[in-house]
UniProtKB/TrEMBL annotation:
<dbReference type="InterPro" id="IPR033913">
    <property type="entry name" value="MTH1175_dom"/>
</dbReference>
<dbReference type="Pfam" id="PF02579">
    <property type="entry name" value="Nitro_FeMo-Co"/>
</dbReference>
<dbReference type="InterPro" id="IPR036105">
    <property type="entry name" value="DiNase_FeMo-co_biosyn_sf"/>
</dbReference>
<feature type="domain" description="Dinitrogenase iron-molybdenum cofactor biosynthesis">
    <location>
        <begin position="10"/>
        <end position="99"/>
    </location>
</feature>
<protein>
    <submittedName>
        <fullName>Predicted Fe-Mo cluster-binding protein, NifX family</fullName>
    </submittedName>
</protein>
<dbReference type="InterPro" id="IPR003731">
    <property type="entry name" value="Di-Nase_FeMo-co_biosynth"/>
</dbReference>
Length: 112
């Protein structure tokens, strides 16, 4: 499985569409291990562009702090699962918490 996490200053970026980079993590769901990590700079922010770009990266799941409803819908239409309300942390901490069913989510940090 491939997980995408929006990142700024090496930590989860609370606003999906305005992150500096995405941490692309290849994970093994069965062993709950991170097999690889790649930091990728997304294209400039334009409404509707990131869901297409993320699909092109082979992503299965996006873990985010906040994301607008339209972006969530566009990702879902492409078969990508979305979890919002993730707390601040490193991409590895967030992904491992998710894999171990320990990720405590709060409110969506985005209100549009």
């Amino acid at each position: 499985m491939k997980i995408a996490i929006p990142v700024a200053n090496e930590l989860l970026c609370m606003h999906f569409g305005h992150c500096e980079q995405f941490a692309m993590l290849d994970v093994n769901e069965e062993t709950k291990q991170i097999k690889g990590k790649e930091m990728i700079t997304p294209p400039p922010h334009e409404p509707g562009l990131l869901p297409v770009w993320i699909k092109d990266q082979g992503v299965d799941l996006v873990l985010a702090g906040g994301m607008g409803k339209k972006a969530q819908e566009l990702l879902a239409e492409r078969g990508i699962k979305v979890v919002v309300g993730a707390p601040s942390g490193t991409p590895e901490e967030i992904a491992l918490a998710y894999l171990n069913k320990e990720l405590v989510t709060g409110q969506n940090a985005c209100d549009h």
